[in-house]
Write a structure and sequence with these properties.
CATH class of the largest domain: Alpha Beta
Family: Belongs to the BCKDHA family.
Enzyme class: oxidoreductase
Structural class: alpha/beta
Distance between the termini: 51 Å
Helix content: 40-55%
Cofactor: thiamine diphosphate
CATH architecture of the largest domain: 3-Layer(aba) Sandwich
Organism: Streptomyces litchfieldiae
EC number: 1.2.4.4
CATH topology of the largest domain: Rossmann fold
Number of helices: 13
Strand content: 5-15%
Largest sheet: 5 strands, parallel
Radius of gyration: 21 Å
């Protein structure tokens, strides 16, 4: 097949919307989904605060907070079906927890535990990935394999705006489009790749426009609007499962905290910018709509906070205890069948592999 023989389905609109997709304030609230999104946002906000505190106490090596962009995380976790897979980046602990991962297990990588802290196959959550965008080709590979086997599986790969400047991002989208892999890419555009603003990363009108060059639809959504993000992702994942190929979704959001606890965000962004985004806090926006619709009472809000406190207490208890270290774990899960060299190293160390 030559390039001239390739064609794009004219029924598929590739151009993203001129304005981010929004639902808050424009449609009646879903009486089941929206309150659940709210509860998870409350829990996520508390989770971020507790994990940050644990980092200051030396219980975590580092923590990249997602405060301010929890709507993207929560919507991603809830949009997935039971058989779908999540491929998160290092900032996507909330998405993994909403997906069903135990709250403490999601912090295994950031604590330095072996084997990333959980079994990816049991939860259908790939290991949280620290190198930028390297999880995306893996997401495409799993999605392509599922398609070849006829499995009803869709894959959601999460990445930040900084990751879109990596070669892995290009390779993943290119392969996904050519293979029509059932995968959705969610770019959480929080404005900065650590300290580098988006304007210094790309000249594209939006990151969603990058989809056009790969031959897949691009969607633009307000990342502070949890129901809107859920709506866009749910539709994109359904499209993927139906064999219609991949979608690139850009959620315009903002991280209110620094990049990590090791970052001084005041060196590259002004406080008035942060204040402007704080006024569009995703938790406040959703809570306001729910109260206006009579779907959230003071008692309901208190219940959500109590549930969040239980999660925080669980984190404190789990990470406050020193881990039980086994030297033999150095030789476990390196190979399915230990090599002679590994067996010899284990014997020298005094441990049988």
């Amino acid at each position: 097949m030559t390039v001239s023989q390739l064609s794009v389905d004219p029924a598929v609109a590739l151009l993203p919307e001129p304005e981010p997709h929004r639902l808050l304030g424009s449609v009646p609230p879903d009486p089941v989904l929206w309150p659940r999104l709210h509860r998870e946002l409350v829990r996520g906000r508390r989770y971020n605060a507790q994990a940050t505190a644990l980092t200051r106490q030396g219980r975590l090596a580092v923590y990249p907070s997602s405060t301010g962009q929890e709507a993207c995380q929560v919507a991603a976790g809830l949009a997935l079906g039971p058989r779908d897979w999540l491929f998160p980046s290092y900032r996507d602990t909330l998405a993994a927890v909403v997906r069903g991962l135990p709250p403490a297990a999601a912090l295994g990588l950031l604590r330095g535990d072996w084997h990333t802290g959980y079994d990816p196959r049991a939860h259908r959550v790939a290991p949280l990935c620290t190198p930028l965008a390297t999880q995306l080709p893996h997401a495409v590979g799993l999605a392509h394999a599922a398609r070849l086997r006829g499995d009803d599986v869709a894959v959601l790969g999460l990445v930040g705006d900084g990751g879109t400047s990596e070669g892995d991002f290009h390779e993943a989208l290119n392969f996904a489009a050519v293979w029509r892999a059932p995968v959705v890419f969610l770019v959480q555009n929080n404005g900065y790749a650590i300290s580098v603003p988006l304007a210094k990363q790309t000249a594209a009108p939006t990151l969603a426009h990058k989809a056009i060059g790969y031959g897949m639809p691009g969607r633009l959504v307000d990342g502070q609007d949890a129901p809107a993000v859920h709506d866009v992702l749910t539709r994109a994942l359904a499209r993927a499962r139906a064999g219609e190929g991949p979608t690139l979704v850009e959620a315009v959001t903002y991280r209110l905290d620094a990049h990590t606890n090791a970052d001084d965000a005041t060196r590259y962004r002004a406080e008035d910018e942060v204040a402007a985004w704080r006024a569009r806090d995703p938790l406040d926006l959703l809570e306001r709509e729910l109260r206006r619709a009579g779907l959230l009472t003071d008692e309901g809000a208190a219940d959500a906070r109590a549930e969040a406190e239980r999660t925080a207490a669980e984190l404190r208890e789990a990470l406050g205890a020193d881990p039980a270290l086994r030297p033999a774990d150095l030789f476990a899960h390196v190979y399915a069948t230990p090599t002679p060299q590994l067996a010899e190293q284990a014997r020298q160390f005094g441990e049988a592999p």
